[in-house]
Amino acid sequence: xxxxxxxxxxxxxxxxxxxxxxxxxxxxxxxxxxxxxxxxxxxxxxxxxxxxxxxxxxxxxxxxxxxxxxxxxxxxxxxxxxxxxxxxxxxxxxxxxxxxxxxxxxxxxxxxxxxxxxxxxxxxxxxxxxxxxxxxxxxxxxxxxxxxxxxxxxxxxxxxxxxxxxxxxxxxxxxxxxxxxxxxxxxxxxxxxxxxxxxxxxxxxxxxxxxxxxxxxxxxxxxxxxxxxxxxxxxxxxxxxxxxxxxxxxxxxxxxxxxxxxxxxxxxxxxxxxxxxxxxxxxxxxxxxxxxxxxxxxxxxxxxxxxxxxxxxxxxxxxxxxxxxxxxxxxxxxxxxxxxxxxxxxxxxxxxxxxxxxxxxxxxxxxxxxxxxxxxxxxxxxxxxxxxxxxxxxxxxxxxxxxxxxxxxxxxxxxxxxxxxxxxxxxxx
Length: 429
Prior knowledge:
Layout: H1 2-17, H2 23-29, E1 55-65, H3 74-89, H4 95-107, H5 120-136, H6 138-141, E2 146-152, H7 156-172, E3 177-182, H8 187-190, H9 196-201, H10 205-216, H11 220-226, H12 230-234, H13 240-253, H14 269-287, H15 302-317, E4 323-330, H16 332-342, E5 372-380, E6 389-394, E7 397-399, E8 411-412, H17 413-428
Parallel strand pairs: 1-4, 2-3, 2-4
Antiparallel strand pairs: 1-5, 5-6, 6-7, 6-8
């Protein structure tokens, strides 16, 4: 009993200290994090906990977002560039505004034919993730009996991300039985799905987000730094707050490219933090456990969680399966709500006061480019009746799960499975 209590205390301490810095401190130290879902994947440096004595990994269930990409819609760029072009024609650009305009015009031609596509950095991210899978869990991917089933949404950037990871796995073990597949028939669990119930719950999302945008986004200094004539941006048709947010979207996504332009000098650090706060609230309301939207938005990934459970059941019941992985590739609109549904770390936290949301729930810790969830399963090497254990990795870092354990970060799969099955049934009633 003393050993169990001590383990739980150590576990609790690890949770409390895992994010010693506040979100504000983290963003002030690394401005790239203010990019939210545009943030480039950061390779973890925290070592992983050794397997319990007598156990070894044999199976991984995975869902990963595509890597860094170009912005998806041409208007994401043009809505910004057109403003700068008009200001240039009217000769109202400051030196800083002219510099920004020139950088945008220099970068924009590289987007032609590339909208939404995987970038060079995005491909590198997935090669790295695949390589570290084999380094951390060689037992899963070794031997002629290793089986990997990899499936992707029909979006090209996801397919290429899958390809990059699988290339690393087959390079590690050319004998591996590798199956890759892309099909519309998988979209119901590989992509996000909003039932009418979820749509109804989110009906107030835009109004809430707009109210916080008015509270936190103050474009006056920003616009004065870019334009010499105040009447240019105070015109009733200009919408300076939207313009500032649009520019911020372009700037934050520049980290997706090896040839991206550095335009962070357009914003103060405080402005970046405030702009991030609005995006953090928006995603929490739209895809998380926010009580303001019924605490149910994460259930748009109910089909994905069902698939994870059912696929794991099939693996456990198989008399021929030895070791391997199920890999799924898609989007942040799936990874983020899945992390909330699984209640990884603080992802399932319900927060009433959105002014202090970042004290409990921080988006960039969940869904940067190439974000991923890995459930790693362990079995006893000698005792066939020993419980199967599982640990969760969020972006390759060990994460807490919502049931007690006396050997964190390892949990009994049977107990965890029962918890999630009950949770899904209660939602679907």
